[in-house]
Amino acid sequence: MKRHFRLNAYCYLVDGLSKGCIYNVSTGDMISIDEDKLNLLNKCESNIPLDRITDTELGFLDTLVGMSVGMYYETPMYVERFYVGQHPAVEMVAPSNYAVGNAFIELDTMCNFDCVFCKEGDNTLFRKTGCKRWARNEGSTIRDIDQWKDILGQLAKLNCQQVTFVGGEPFLQFSLMEKLLAHAKAQGIYRVLIYTNGSLLNDEILECIKKYNAELNVQVLGSNDDTYRKITGVSEMHSKVLDNVSLLASDNVRYTLTFLVNRLNENEIEDAYALYSPFTNPNRIRLEFLYPLPHNDFYSTKFLGLMYDKTSSFGKVDVNSFCHHAKYHNCYGHQLGITAEGDILPCIMSRKLVLGNVRKNDIVSILKDSDYEQYQKLTKDEIDKCKQCSYRYGCFDCRALEMSATDYLKGLEYCNLKSALRSDEVLEDLVSI
Amino acid sequence: MQGAQLNAYRFSTESGNQYIFDNVSGMVIPCPDDVYYLITHFNDHEKNDIIGELKTTYNHKDAGGSYGYIETLIRNGFFYKDPSKRTSPVINEHTVLHTPSSALILIATEKCNLRCKYCVYSDSYPLIKSYSNKHMTFDVARKAIDYYMELHKERVKSGFKKAPAIVFYGGEPLMELGLIKQVVDYCRAKDPKTVFYITTNGTLIDDEFIRLAIENSIMVTVSLDGNEYEHDRKRVFKNGKGTFNQIIKNLTDFQTEKQKQGLEQIITFNSCYDSFTDICQVVDFFEEKRDMFSPFSVFLGEINPFYTNYYDDLDDLYSRGLLETDRNSLTNSMSKIRARFLDDIINDKTPSSTMYSIFLGLFFLKNRAKGIQPILNNSCIPTSKLSVDPDGRFYVCERVNQQFSIGDIDRGIDFDKVNRLVNEYVSLLHENCGTCGFSRLCEVCFMHFVRDNELVFNQEFCEKRRTTIPKILEMVYSTLEANPRAFDNLLDYSFHEAYEVLIK
């Protein structure tokens, strides 16, 4: 009865340098296994009979059966893996059409805050996607509503499902944004996300947010007015943001809070959580960081460990995300960024990867005539330090941040698994056996 | 799960292992008796009863784990579907712009200089109208191209990646070489990246066409059924004389010129077979000509056995001693060639491209799409290919070019007609294929249902597929058991361009 063991169809076994990982794409679990167990499973997956198996090994396989991860068979079987959509071999012959799932639109980079770590016109990047006062040129900033409408029209034709407004502070351009929200809806783009510092909300804006069912991502910078003033140079902003977020909650607007951890607010996370959690779903409060590279004085040394802790970025890996991550970059694969000056980027924060400009060419021509597909397919199998890591299909990659830290498209800085992969440690944060 | 019925098909491999093809997800999973018991009893038995049965009858130590395995699959939508639920697809302007392929097929003429025995215009297919003298004027072609190019431009704006494609079809399109030249010039001026395809019987390939084909990288498909005997018994001039020698002479000129210019311009062959064909000889013929034809690929296809007296005529010829082979030739030779092919891929040897093209279906079955089934299954979305007849009427396909017009060059696509056709087609699928355990593997499309001036479910085709699909499943999974990588790396690049137009 127990001559052969095979992982079930919804489980992928991924090899690493000294560890393996079973991805159960039906539950989303990643199961970390050591080298011996990886070797055993590799033999099982090659249909090698379980003739000389030890009791310990058998116990391990029994555990996997109990977890509905594998089955015993009497004879060698062929077990194919579950995927969705076209098989990659066929896709090579018949490539799918261009499609932009999510378009990040930056109407301007101006902001009503003057954050100490975000000097106007300084293009040094040490944070993930969010606001940034990128260098701007008023003369080439797109102010023409018809031009933005045309861009939205082009995106809608590319099956765009969501537009995400970023800045600067997007609500400084509320009048323009409101018109674009109406146009996006008319074009069939129904999902809208707006990154904001939360300070400018008023009745008119709230009505508009509700009308277009927009979701907000509010960045929180501290737990009191003093810290806010030190960071932003503006008084009483904590109170303002807190009031505005409570308004969002009472108006049933969907929102997420991002606490941007830095040296000036690193001791206020718990306080901020205590202030916001009474009216905010705790699952929708998350931490983001200012990172140490390129060298700066603003990152929190206290949370340096967390910045390098890749396991905290591990999410549930269902069949769609596994298949997507195996073929495409987690962000570049399905999104585009459009700057205030019309530059098209694979990510709004990847300012060095300009694909073209919408004032000169239409979006499709830009995608066709640039390195877009190369970026789109920049999976972890292409990233030097990730390609031998067994967790590569489950962890989030912020290429903009990594590229800025290493000055290399395929570089990697923020990962503590580089050393873990060469040791025998088993990651505790994973479901481990 | 109320109303849901099992929609799957259990099959065995040569080793006796059992698997189940899940028609809902497109997956195949191992399915020994205990797993099959679980799947079939999951919806109408209590969990404890099933686990108890697994322990007692199937001697399961960890029945809970096995139950969890199947429960996970069923909760993820495997195996069961409600056959009464149906979706009604609507083809509209949006659908038309997001098709996976885009081609304009110009029926340049309905005239032909040959009288092939199996031609759909011949007396062998009494339900289809006969040859005509109609040919396309440039005015009609121009209007069709204008319409298509505008449509294509919109498709490109909607993310379509490939260049516009113009296909010359007939009758014999080279009887209208003048039109072809005009069309090529006109399209080149409109979009220099336009790609051209032509399907020809090869007898009229001359220096003028060779120049045109080379200058414009026209992808030429020649109908060539194999060696002289095999080809000439089917493909003949009006006077009954075989066409083989003429075609080989023309092809020699064409290939020599390409080689002289150092061009790697692929040529493809359509090769049709019937039950009297010795397929080994066909394969050997193309392989012997490799130096002359290369780079090339061959598409082998069975001569349509439905609504025809072609096969009766063959029997008649055989009974009169006029055929060298017998009606078992195909079956016997196919077994031999299949054994050779499978032996090659199991042992990691690359089979000849000709052999591979015969068994291309195995590759596509192994690498089939999984997950949500497209509404029209394996049929192409109407309007992705737009076929135009000499009168300027649009059809869904060059093979359905006499019935079911879906618009014309003056008024464009008629969405009412398109949707009537689609709904009629989907109704037939729903009524006849709703409970089939492997319908998503069936290549049925519009052309199989066309009869007189209506769509009719093709029972003969269905019965044939019901026999062959299980055999193919058995063959593919037996092969994969012997070598899980058997089908990897089979597509070499030379195939890709040729397949682009074929994949729907």
Question: If you had to describe this structure to a student in words, what would you say it looks like?
Answer:
The complex is a heterodimer of chains A (433) and B (504). Chain A is α/β, with parallel strands linked by helices. Chain A has helices spanning 35-45, 55-66, 88-93, 145-157, 174-186, 203-211, 225-232, 237-250, 269-276, 304-308, 319-327, 363-368, 372-376, 399-406, 417-420; strands at 4-7, 11-15, 19-24, 29-34, 70-73, 102-106, 162-166, 191-196, 215-220, 255-261, 285-289, 335-338, 343-345, 356-357, 431-432. In chain A, strand 7, helix 5 and strand 8 form a beta-alpha-beta unit. Chain B is α/β, with parallel strands linked by helices and 504 residues long. Chain B is 42% helix and 13% strand. In chain B, the strands form five sheets. Chain B has an eight-stranded mixed sheet with strand order 11-10-9-8-7-6-12-13, sandwiched between helices. At the A-B interface, helix 2 and helix 3 of A face strand 4, helix 3, helix 18 and helix 19 of B.
Question: Nutshell version of this structure?
Answer:
The complex is a heterodimer of chains A (433) and B (504). Chain A has helices spanning 35-45, 55-66, 88-93, 145-157, 174-186, 203-211, 225-232, 237-250, 269-276, 304-308, 319-327, 363-368, 372-376, 399-406, 417-420, and strands at 4-7, 11-15, 19-24, 29-34, 70-73, 102-106, 162-166, 191-196, 215-220, 255-261, 285-289, 335-338, 343-345, 356-357, 431-432.
CATH fold title of the largest domain in chain A: TIM Barrel
Give the spatial strand order of the biggest sheet of chain A: 11-10-9-8-7-6-12-13-14
Computed over alpha carbons, the radius of gyration of chain B is 25 Å
What is the percent of helical residues of chain A? 25-40%
> Low-confidence segments of chain B, ≥5 residues, pLDDT <50?
496-504
Largest sheet of chain B: 8 strands, mixed
Mean pLDDT of chain A: 92
Q: N- to C-terminal separation of chain B?
A: 33 Å
Spatial extent as radius of gyration of chain A = 24 Å
CATH class of the largest domain in chain B: Alpha Beta
**What ranges of chain A have pLDDT less than 50 throughout 5 or more consecutive residues?**
419-433
CATH architecture of the largest domain in chain A: Alpha-Beta Barrel
Number of DSSP-assigned strands of chain A: 15
Output the structural class of chain B. Answer: alpha/beta
**Could you give the order of the helices and strands of chain A?**
EEEEHHEHEHEHEHEHHEHEHHEEEHHHHE
CATH architecture level-2 label of the largest domain in chain B: Alpha-Beta Barrel
Strand content of chain B: 5-15%
Q: How would a crystallographer describe the biggest sheet of chain A?
A: 9 strands, mixed
Helix/strand structural class of chain A: alpha/beta
